[in-house]
Amino acid sequence: MSYASDNGLAPLEDEAEVLLRQVHPLQYLVDGKLSSVAFYPSEDDQGVMSTRREAIGPERACLDWLEDHESAGTWGVSVGEFATHTVETTDDSSLPEQPEGHASADYTHMAEGLRRKKGRKIRDHAWNRGPLYRNPAVSTPVADDE
Amino acid sequence: MTQAPIMLVGMVALSAMAPVPATAHRVTEEIPFTQIFKATPVPIGGYHTVPQSDTVFQTTWNVAPPEYRGSADEVPVETGTVAADPLEEAIMSRLASIAALQDGWTGKNSKAPADSLVTWLQAHRDLLASAPHTVSIVPASSGALALQWEDTDRECTAELYADDRMMLFVDHLDSDDMDESTTTLDVDVLGRFLSTSELP
């Protein structure tokens, strides 16, 4: 069982598609890198992490999010990179209250410790890819290797 | 922030100046301290929007130092500026930003960290300031406060929860190993973890 099958949805299959994730300004580390905390869900998220699909575009994804939240910018992780860490991704924009092009990354089958381990590795993918869009209104520390 | 450490710093700075004659004593208990907050935010230790705070110190002599040749009614007054602990200020600034979060801050189910948790960490900020590694304070969508640092080949996380719980993780970066431990929120246990990066 998975989040996709529980909801009658199909997993994303294009491994090259880069899903878009917003990172809150307070989820940067002191050295300017990203915290792994921004890349795994809590129990209150029902074990899935929100992203937007690549077609939305990193700037629009950020601007949409800024209507009700804060974001320092858009970071990306591909469907294939999620899959490498056994995290299935699903377009669930057909579900109630989800915006256009919403996709969820499924950590529901993992214990707490494993979620954090996978979250750190997925953070590393996002970090290595670099920011896809920076919110010009937010200043965050700049890492040495950025 | 207590003023005792600042007094000591001021005294150390002064002691590097003119030698103190045996008959002269600094009247340290009468030193007035004033916090001056400059308007321009500066980055300190990677944190932004931190006001830089300096401490102005002033000291007088109850007996004029021997090199002084002026009036006995006008013994010299020494003044100077000593920086307050910028790291503790950065920690307090970061916690103030976290305290301003509201439920839903990072999604509809996300929780803001409880005020009691932020207050607890404010009271123990010296643990973070004195840790051998640079410790980041990161809010999680669960309402936890995550303390994170890297130690050679490990990424360490202490997640603090308002229900008196603490989850500790050591992620070995070059393997699939992940060590974890759950304890009660305990300042001594947290202090040891911050110091050693080893689980209890």
Describe the structure.
By secondary structure, chain A is an alpha+beta fold. Chain A contains 4 helices and 6 strands; from the N terminus they run αββαβαββαβ. The termini of chain A are far apart. The relative contact order of chain A is 0.26. Chain B has 200 residues and is an alpha+beta fold. Helices cover 25% and strands 33% of the residues of chain B. Chain B has helices at 4-15, 86-99, 115-123, 125-129, 187-196, and strands spanning 34-44, 47-60, 77-83, 136-139, 145-151, 154-161, 165-172, 178-184. Chain B has a 5-stranded antiparallel β-sheet with strand order 4-5-6-7-8. In chain B, strands 1-2-3 form a 3-stranded antiparallel β-sheet, with helices on one face. In chain B, strand 4 and strand 5 (145-151) form a beta hairpin. In chain B, helix 2 (86-99) packs antiparallel against helix 3 (115-123). The relative contact order of chain B is 0.10. The chains are: A alpha+beta (146), B alpha+beta (200). At the A-B interface, helix 4 of A face strand 2, helix 2, strand 4 and strand 7 of B.
Features:
heterodimer, A: 146 residues, alpha+beta, 3-stranded antiparallel beta sheet, 4 helices, 6 strands, globular, B: 200 residues, 5-stranded antiparallel beta sheet, 5 helices, 25% helix, disordered N terminus
Rg of chain A to the nearest angstrom?
Answer: 14 Å
* End-to-end separation of chain B: 30 Å
**Model regions low in confidence, pLDDT < 50 over at least 5 residues of chain B:** 1-58
Percent helix range of chain A: 25-40%
Shape label of chain B:
globular
Please work out how many helical segments of chain A DSSP would assign: 4
Give the proportion of residues in helices of chain B. Answer: 25-40%
Task: List the total number of helices of chain B.
Answer: 5
Specify the oligomeric state: heterodimer
Radius of gyration of chain B: 23 Å
Largest sheet of chain A: 3 strands, antiparallel
In N-to-C order, the SSE pattern of chain A is HEEHEHEEHE
Q: Name the beta content range of chain A.
A: 15-25%
Strand order of the main beta sheet of chain A, please? Answer: 1-3-6
Quote the distance from N terminus to C terminus of chain A.
Answer: 39 Å
Query: Averaged pLDDT of chain B, please?
Result: 73
By DSSP, the count of extended strands of chain A is: 6
Element string of chain B (H = helix, E = strand): HEEEHHHEEEEEH
Query: In terms of per-residue confidence, which ranges of chain A show pLDDT below 50 for 5 or more consecutive residues?
Result: none
Q: Which two chains share the most extensive interface? A: A-B, 31 and 37 residues
* SSE-based structural type of chain B: alpha+beta
